[in-house]
Write a structure and sequence with these properties.
alpha/beta, 22% helix
């Protein structure tokens, strides 16, 4: 028996309702967006009414809306979160992305639950456990290779979702406590202080400085646009773009780039894959991933557990931009560049100074290859120049840049009492509207005039791809035909809304069996009684509370980051090589405010970051 094509989802981030709608217009099959509270981006919350408006728009295209309820939950918040999930269900939200297992024990409607990457899913056993618990979609750790991802895909029957683009956390998600330990702000509560983006000095066991004032934990941005076919072959069904704090221009550009890349693969393999939502996009621009914010790109561990290409961006955690040329000369009020790029008033540029610090400046005026900075800037000849804000691009992408339309076929026909218009879209939804009346025979042919009227679908989500006019040579007033078209399209929109495909929560056994030991540690992030009940029923016999419940328990030597990224490997000093022995451990990183010790688990190829008290 031939399997039907697998639905493929492009999942886009949205800071707010406006950006969510733009993401869908530009080709997203689904968006994920923060609800009023308990989202893992505390600065990106939205009201229930705003989310309902997004769902109404998305469902026109059979696109979906996922709400991020992916913080750990305290006891005094359980009922509040429960009420919010009920509200999300009533608002038409398709799924809730969660971290805390308490949600599985709440009195909530059968809304689909997705296991967040905050659940720290690294193994097929963990994925199977969460599927058995009732999750309808699984989001494994970003750090997994293609082979590891494929094993998870084969282990479960629910869709597997992977990150393909955007910022990377240096630690496994859900297994990072550095911000909590150092500042009291918990990443598991959506309040990460982003200590990994700060500069540190690396020292050996004798206190010798090995690297000074460098961004040692700041990873480049993920870019798997070249690995989409491999990920599809591995069994991935959902492709997720990171960026719930990004602006509309970023979301438009990145979504359009991945939409075009995925469509190329899907269209070439219709027997294997199909799009999971409706409509095709027309863009007024050519997507370019290098035009949007990034810290440089990495494919991370996609193809190897120990990649040789750089993962980090030691020089700067900022967006450097694309190299556009070098400095030819620096005059008293302008800079002459050696570049072939077209420069624009208002461009943002930058360069690395002699201390390897990135210095940015704004261009007041551009004349050919000359730029006049807003502030006096002296740069040595030969210095590379980067552009991280292309004013012409920004202005262009800030306007109306995409239209997404669903093809419909119309049949205009005569009836015993008048005329009728039948409409059917590419998903098979249908609508018919009729008008009674005694229509007279026309003196001239009517088909072309009627075609022009019926094709005017205005600002709806439909595009007329075919018209079958069998009404004969009768005269239908333009106002009647316009009303018939308007009413039939409205009826089709209602039909589509009624036929929107919801995925409901999987039925789960009362107590899925824990895949690991029966003793839970703080790294399992258990912060409430409902989560304890869940794990107890699954076989846990002892549970250490989440660190957020007792920050005072954080002591010297507490593991606060668990990373597959290895600073030694990044610097060519792996302990398994002769070069690695040149750096005598234990190693430490510190700055004016924070200090951490580094341990290297070479057997597992992991780096552990531990607290180092007293803090500096």
């Amino acid at each position: 028996m031939t399997r039907p094509p697998r639905p493929i989802e492009l999942l886009a981030p949205a800071r707010n309702a406006e950006i969510a709608i733009e993401a869908i217009k530009h080709g997203a099959d689904a968006v994920y967006i923060g609800p009023p509270h308990n989202g893992a981006r505390a600065a990106a919350a939205n009201s229930i009414e705003e989310l309902a408006a997004v769902a109404d728009f998305a469902h026109k295209y059979n696109a979906r809306v996922y709400a991020t309820v992916n913080t750990i939950i305290y006891n005094d918040e359980l009922r509040r979160v429960e009420r919010m999930i009920r509200d999300l269900y009533r608002a038409g939200i398709d799924a809730v992305i969660v971290q805390d297992m308490a949600v599985l024990r709440m009195d909530i409607p059968p809304i689909a639950l997705h296991a967040s990457t905050q659940c720290d899913i690294r193994t097929p056993e963990k994925a199977r456990f969460l599927e058995a618990a009732g999750f309808s979609q699984i989001v494994p750790a970003r750090e997994l290779t293609l082979d590891e991802t494929e094993r998870i895909c084969k282990a479960v029957s629910v869709p597997v979702e992977v990150f393909v683009h955007g910022a990377l956390c240096v630690s496994y998600s859900g297994d990072c406590y550095a911000s909590l330990a150092a500042t009291g702000r918990s990443a598991n509560r959506g309040e990460c202080a982003q200590l990994c983006r700060m500069p540190y000095t690396l020292t050996d066991k004798h206190g010798n400085i090995l690297l000074e004032n460098r961004h040692l934990l700041s990873l480049r941005d993920l870019n798997r646009s070249g690995a989409l076919a491999d990920l599809l072959a591995a069994g991935v069904s959902s492709f997720k773009i990171e960026g719930r704090l990004k602006d509309a221009a970023y979301v438009k550009n990145v979504v359009a780039a991945y939409r075009m890349a995925l469509d190329s693969i899907i269209d070439s393999n219709p027997e294997l894959y199909t799009r999971s939502s409706s409509g095709r996009c027309d863009y007024s621009f050519t997507p370019d991933l290098n035009k949007s914010f990034n810290r440089g790109y990495t494919s991370y561990f996609t193809k190897s557990e120990a990649p040789s290409t750089p993962m980090a961006s030691f020089a700067s955690p900022k967006w450097i931009g694309e190299k556009i040329g070098t400095v030819k000369a620096c005059r008293h009020n302008y800079i002459e560049l050696d570049t072939r790029k077209k420069l624009t008033n208002g461009d943002g540029m930058g360069y690395f100074d002699t201390n390897d610090r990135f210095i940015g400046f704004r261009v007041n005026r551009a004349e050919g290859t000359r730029v006049f900075p807003a502030t006096k800037t002296t740069i040595p000849a030969g210095t590379p120049i980067y552009r991280n804000s292309d004013k012409a691009w920004t202005d262009m992408i800030g306007g109306q840049t995409a239209i997404r339309l669903i093809d419909i076929a119309m049949t205009l026909r005569a009836t015993p009492s008048g005329i009728a218009l039948d409409i059917q879209d590419t998903d098979g939804c249908k609508a018919t509207v009729s008008v009674d009346g005694d229509f007279q025979t026309a003196r001239t042919t009517q088909h072309e005039r009627r075609k022009e009227t019926l094709e005017k679908t205005g600002y709806t989500c439909f595009k007329v791809s075919a018209i079958d006019d069998t009404a004969g040579n009768i005269f239908i007033p333009a106002s009647v035909l316009t009303g018939l078209r308007r009413d039939s399209i409205a009826a089709l929109e209602r039909s589509r809304a009624l036929h929107h495909r919801y995925t409901y929560r999987n039925k789960a056994p009362e107590a899925p069996e824990l895949p690991t030991g029966t003793t839970l540690t703080y790294r399992d992030n258990v912060a409430n009684t409902l989560a304890i009940d869940f794990y107890t029923e699954a076989g846990a016999t002892a549970s250490e509370p989440a660190l957020e419940c007792n920050p005072q328990s954080i002591s010297d030597g507490t593991i606060v980051m668990n990373t597959r990224y290895c600073l030694r490997r990044e610097c060519g000093k792996c302990l398994r090589t002769a070069e690695g022995r040149q750096w005598q451990g234990p190693l430490s990183i510190s700055n004016d405010n924070y200090a951490f010790r580094l341990e290297f688990d070479c057997k597992q190829c992991r780096m552990l970051v531990k607290t180092s008290f007293p803090r500096r």
